[in-house]
Amino acid sequence: MKAQPLLSRRSLEEKVTRTFDRLFAGAAFELQLPGRPSRLLGAGEPAFQILVRNQAGLAALGSLNENRIGEAYLNGDIDLNGDVVAALDLRTELRNQRRLAYLLTTYGLGYLWATYVQPRLFGQVTCDERWISQHYDLDSDFYLLFLDRQAH
Questions:
Q1: How far apart are alpha carbons 35 and 148 in whole angstroms?
Q2: In CA terms, which of 25, 27, 60, 113 is 20 to 30 Å from 92?
Q3: Which residue did the predictor score with more confidence, 54 or 42?
């Protein structure tokens, strides 16, 4: 038995076009969804066209996940015509929309804890002093482990 998709194709198409209208209002481009007429987003002459070939490409765009969109492009589920650099500029908006998810998946929870939470809780100076001592207050025998025998 196949699992039902969370969103129907029609509602996913509507979500993608609404979201793209809102996020990328400053960029003029054409969005071609499967079996639908092209739609111009933004004002002015479109710099590029995003061609969604199938449901997998539509789901990738709907996720607003840069990795999923890139994989869909590599798999042929999405195609891009026109100014590639202008299209890649949209990635900034994707990251801004999913900042926490992007930081978690890119750097991990430890990074977020050390970079954002600890300094707010304990103070930046206190955290810096602790991190510096953890990195540099090691015995010189430790560093000799990494040196060639001829160097010491």
A1: 64
A2: 113
A3: 54
